[in-house]
Amino acid sequence: MTREQLNNLFEKEYVRYNLKHNKSIEGSGLGLNIVYSFVDLMKGNIKVKSKPQKGSTFTLRIPQKIAGDALIGAETAGRMQNFEFVKTSGEKPNTIKHTPMPYGSVLVVDDAESNLYVAKGLLARYKLKVETADSGYASLELVNGGNKYDIIFMDHMMPDMDGVETTRQLLALGYEDPIVVLTANIVMAQEEVYSKAGFAGYISKPIDTNVLDKTLMRLIHDKQPPDVLAAAAQNNEPEIVEDSNAVSAELVASFLRDATKAIETLNNVIGREDISGGQVKMYTISTHAMKSALFNINETELSSLAGTLEDAGHKNDTAVIKAKTPHFLELLVEVVKKLSPEEDLSIEDEDPAYLKEQLRVIHDASTAYNKKVIKKALTNLGKKTWSKKTNDIISEIKGHLLHSEFELIAKAVDMKLKNGAV
After folding, report:
1. CA dist 122 to 25, 116, 212, 240, Å?
2. Residue closest to 400 by CA, chosen among 379, 368, 371
3. What CATH architecture is 249-339?
4. Does residue 206 have a cis bond before it (omega within 30 degrees)?
5. Which has the closest alpha carbon to 258: 56, 413, 60, 117?
6. For the domain 85-242, what is the CATH code?
């Protein structure tokens, strides 16, 4: 553009140059005015350098508050440059082609039951073999027992032993397969730190489905020989699913169990006059878990507040913890009440003999570590009407099954049958 054109570029609402070449293009030049208006609204400025027959350089500067002094890292910066962000509630769902990987196996490690439920649901679309563990210690037991996985998805923040320490111990055992960290603080994630800790990558929580898909393709699919891929493609049609914000009854049930534990932990912390370092750590882990769990059920505003409290925990800011936690607990209790099913204590078991039969099936299957048979029995039980006491038993079994706690399933069922509770 010439100097005269540059001087007039943002002076008029709509400017068109080089009409000879642009007369057939509707709206040519309109975008510049729109951009200028947006920049002006954000109290920024835009500068242009241009030479005829050479080209133009536009430079935009927009004021931005400093969010913190932590490095976001090259990978996160690259995602921001490519406009790859975590999907939030209300956005248009992504449509992903879930390539079947029946040859693959993964382990998901997370202390929040609702997070495990969501992760299993996302991974099931790939027809992978999926196992779960609710602590670092549980994952170590599985690996010590000879289990190997194509990927271990490891939550960063967990009580007793976090994901970084768990990974250190796994590597010390000689474990060589990829471990991917799950972090709820993607902007604060420092891939250099995770890389030094031995992780093969990281995925944001709530789980970024696009990054999950790319991770599975890179670390499982792309490592398979051609004959394995050909056989899988022949026997399994790719599943194309739109990511949904729908909340299932099972997810709500797992959230309620997570929330009940969190309420107890947070009340215990703020009920003390002096909060110790160990209590602040438990507080931070609990609010961290609630941040993801609340997002899972589309309670995004309360999830954001949980994130604020988690940040206060990281900073050991007991003043903020004591000031803001009571209100958070009030809102969390309201959500729990809203989601808790109304209990009709007058309802009796529809078919006691059938109930005992299915519970015995579950008991025998748990001693044989047969998850498939237990799931089928639970499905059968779901087709009939049961009392609150029986529904509590079924809910307990589902909770244990999610963590593959077969011994606890057998113990719970055995106790109910022996005590004549059903």
Report:
1. 45, 10, 9, 12
2. 371
3. Up-down Bundle (1.20)
4. yes
5. 117
6. 3.40.50.2300
Residue 416 token pair: 């109910």
Phi, psi (rounded to 5 degrees) for 201 = 160, -175
Q: Which of 104, 109, 100 is nearest to 137 (CA)?
A: 109
How far apart, in Å, are the Cα atoms of 15 and each of 31, 79, 292? 10, 34, 48
Four-CA torsion 18, 22, 28, 29, nearest 10 degrees: 0
Q: What is the pLDDT along the chain (422 residues), one digit of tens a residue?
A: 777 777 777 664 545 555 555 554 444 456 677 787 788 888 888 888 888 888 889 888 888 877 666 666 665 666 666 655 554 444 445 567 789 999 999 999 999 889 999 999 899 889 999 999 989 999 999 999 889 999 999 999 898 899 999 999 999 999 999 999 998 655 444 667 788 889 998 888 878 888 899 999 999 999 999 999 999 888 777 665 555 556 777 888 889 989 998 999 999 888 887 888 889 999 999 999 999 999 989 898 999 899 899 999 999 999 999 999 999 999 999 999 999 876 555 677 778 899 999 999 999 999 998 888 998 898 888 888 888 788 888 888 887 886 678 898 998 898 878 765 55
Q: Please name the residue ranges forming H helices in 104-178.
A: 113-124, 136-144, 163-172
Yes or no: say if 206 and 296 are a contact pair by the CB < 8 Å rule. yes
Question: Residue 54 and residue 288: Cα distance in Å, rounded?
Answer: 53
Task: Report the b/e string of 82-120 with b at 16+ CB within 10 A.
Answer: eeeebbeeeeeeeebebbbbebbbbbbbbbbbbbbbbbb
Q: Which amino acid is at 40?
A: D
Q: Give me the residue spans of the domains in the chain.
A: 3-61, 85-242, 249-339, 352-418
CA-to-CA separations, 264 to 149, 257, 267, 285, in angstroms, rounded: 35, 11, 5, 13
Location of structure tokens 């609150």: 388
Distance CA 54, CA 48 (A): 13
| Helix axes 371-381 and 388-402, enclosed angle (nearest 10) | 160
Query: What one-character DSSP code corresponds to residue 422?
Result: -
Rounded CA gap, 202 and 167, in Å? 13
Displacement of CA 270 from its chain's centroid (Å): 27
CB 86 within 8 A of CB 196: no
